[in-house]
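A.,

Following up on our hallway conversation. Structure tokens first:
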């Protein structure tokens, strides 16, 4: 019992079974596996090998054996200098050491990417510039640490298919700042004597070397790397080196002569040619004074902004402004086309519209002419466009107001004008006006048009500020149904719409104009089915809130019984038809003191029972196209009976 309180001592065999990975790692005598050569540079050879303990493949670098031990310190300096730089676009040093044969080495992350000159084939200028900005970011970081690369070229930059960019081969790098004081004194001595190799050879790569790299007395600083970056940009734009050296004899002369200008190359955009030429200036004072300055101009080109050399070119700034805001200009043109089309359409329909339609046409014609004039002036004068935008959107909001009035005032004779399209246009134009700061007139339109669509969620989300009591009532409705997020394409279900009407009917104040607008929009934005009868019945109940009014509807037998109902809202469909014209009825029974036949105009009724109506006023223009039986009381005045008999055969009239 006592022995159970102590840990059990494992035997050697038990421990091997319990900890197999630990014993496998402990059994390794070598740290690195067999090496496969990856490439050879001027100072070192790079191999691929397996780091046995970590189970990963790494890149192993070691000095070229034929250079001798005199290059060992320079090799170690490169490793330490590179290891001091911590940036995602600079190759990472994993280990620096001496192998079993006394030769220095260092290991790096093994990347599967290609050199920059191989990776840019079939890439667009935009993709190449993205790679170039990553290189600039890495070099700018190194400069912030006081380190120069001095051998930047496409062959020393790796790119992979996932967009990773790595600046490699810092063998000619040089520390010129106190930021690298942590390097030993011998490393700093190497940096101070870094202009030439141990044998007096010029360091750098022909075609990418700045002129000061071939002059012993010249000072090398951050602008030397700027020149090399300019050479890389030249290569990315043309596929050629900026300076081509045929042999070592003309290395100095051609390097001092510099690269040809790209401004005469039609395949290179003008702004990029100016950037490249400035980076490749022979005099350091005439180049970009920092990599960050070069990078800012590249980013300005990518974002369609003016570069430093074009900062005073008003025409250039204006053209780039238009390019950056192409979407807005296209939208404005589309709005112009839309407004012009609507104007022509209204002109065609003016023959049948009344005075209100004539006023809309005149306003649209005037707005179209002014808009075209403002648009022409905008192409040449930026300040004129800024001034005219406010006037333009004031007229746009005016058009939106007229469209909304047309939605509510559309006459019975108006055909071919969709209420849904009108609300959509009101929403679009008022949104544009609101974005331009015209809140006084656009906010009521936005609230009303979204309320008609039952987009309560948008109303609550924006919290448009208005003190109008009518619109505060809309907010109260919206708070009752905050989840309603409907529009032209997505409409509420029959249950949701019925619930809305029933709930609003129980409120102290009912906004009938709003309810009529909702029904007007909803009916024209959906395909009506027999299920929709429930919504229309709820609408009738909302129109007749009196306790003396009763409405009974048998859905299966399609029988509707109305008692003391005097409001069918004949204008709610905005066509002069009765609300009952949308309900598929087999029989309608009415009961009450009096009745006007116009309330049933074009109703879909097979059997109409008016026998319980005390007084019937039958109007001559009433049409009941589906009626098969018309049941009247014997008490109907003869004058009214003659009018009914005139419109309907005796076989359809049953007198009781």
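Then the amino acids I'd put at each of the 656 positions:
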């Amino acid at each position: 019992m006592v022995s159970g309180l102590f840990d059990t001592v494992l035997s050697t065999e038990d421990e091997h079974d319990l900890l197999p990975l630990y014993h496998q790692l402990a059994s390794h005598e070598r740290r690195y596996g067999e090496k496969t050569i990856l490439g050879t540079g001027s100072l070192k050879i790079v191999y691929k090998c397996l780091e046995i303990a970590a189970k990963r493949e790494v890149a192993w670098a070691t000095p070229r054996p034929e250079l001798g031990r005199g290059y060992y310190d320079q090799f170690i300096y490169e490793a330490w200098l590179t290891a001091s730089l911590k940036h995602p676009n600079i190759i990472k040093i994993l280990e620096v050491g001496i192998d079993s044969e006394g030769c220095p080495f260092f290991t790096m992350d093994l990347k599967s990417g290609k050199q920059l000159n191989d990776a840019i084939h079939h890439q667009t200028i935009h993709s190449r510039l993205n790679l170039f900005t990553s290189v600039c970011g890495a070099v700018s970081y190194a400069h912030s640490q006081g380190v120069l690369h001095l051998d930047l070229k496409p062959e020393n930059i790796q790119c992979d298919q996932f967009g990773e960019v790595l600046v490699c081969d810092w063998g000619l790098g040089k520390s010129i700042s106190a930021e690298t004081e942590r390097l030993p004194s011998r490393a700093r001595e190497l940096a101070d004597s870094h202009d030439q190799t141990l044998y007096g050879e010029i360091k750098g790569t022909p075609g990418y070397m700045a002129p000061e790299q071939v002059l012993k007395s010249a000072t090398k600083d951050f602008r030397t790397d700027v020149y090399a970056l300019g050479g890389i940009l030249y290569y990315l734009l043309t596929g050629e080196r900026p300076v081509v050296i045929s042999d070592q004899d003309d290395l100095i002369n051609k390097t001092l002569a510099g690269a040809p200008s790209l401004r005469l190359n039609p395949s290179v955009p003008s702004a990029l040619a100016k950037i490249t030429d400035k980076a490749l200036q022979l005099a350091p004072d005439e180049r970009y004074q920092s990599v960050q300055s070069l990078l800012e101009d590249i980013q300005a080109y990518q974002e369609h902004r003016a570069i430093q050399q074009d900062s005073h070119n008003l025409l250039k700034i204006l053209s780039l402004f238009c390019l950056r805001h192409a979407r807005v200009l296209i939208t404005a043109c589309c709005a112009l086309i839309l407004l012009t089309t609507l104007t022509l359409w209204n002109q065609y329909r003016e023959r049948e519209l009344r005075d209100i339609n004539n006023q809309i046409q005149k306003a649209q014609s005037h707005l179209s002419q002014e808009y075209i004039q403002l648009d022409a002036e905008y192409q040449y004068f930026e300040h004129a466009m800024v001034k005219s935008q406010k006037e333009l959107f004031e007229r746009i909001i005016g058009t939106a107001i007229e469209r909304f009035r047309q939605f509510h005032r559309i006459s019975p004779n108006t055909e071919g004008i969709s209420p849904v399209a009108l609300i959509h246009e009101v929403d679009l134009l008022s949104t544009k006006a609101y974005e331009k700061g015209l809140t006084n007139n656009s906010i009521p339109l936005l609230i009303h048009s979204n309320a008609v669509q039952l987009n309560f969620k948008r109303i609550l989300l924006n919290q448009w500020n208005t003190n109008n009591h009518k619109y505060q009532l809309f907010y109260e409705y919206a708070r009752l149904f905050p989840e309603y997020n409907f529009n032209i394409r997505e409409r509420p279900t029959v249950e949701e719409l019925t619930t809305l009407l029933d709930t609003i009917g129980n409120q102290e104040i009912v906004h009938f104009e709003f309810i009529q607008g909702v029904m007007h929009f909803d009916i024209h934005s959906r395909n009506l089915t027999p299920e929709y009868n429930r919504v229309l019945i709820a609408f009738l109940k909302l129109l007749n809130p009196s306790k003396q009014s009763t409405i009974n509807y048998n859905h299966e037998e399609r029988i509707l019984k109305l008692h003391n109902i005097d409001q069918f809202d004949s204008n709610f469909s905005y066509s002069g038809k009765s609300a009952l014209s949308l309900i598929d009825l087999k029989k309608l029974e009415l009961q009450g003191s009096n009745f006007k036949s116009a309330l049933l105009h074009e109703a879909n009724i097979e059997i109409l029972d008016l026998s319980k109506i005390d007084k019937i006023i039958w109007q001559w223009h009433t049409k009941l196209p589906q009626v098969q039986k018309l049941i009247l009381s014997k008490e109907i005045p003869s004058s009214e009976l003659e009018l009914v008999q005139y419109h309907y055969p005796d076989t359809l009239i049953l007198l009781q």
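The first helix runs from residue 12 to 18. Curious whether your intuition agrees with the design.

B.
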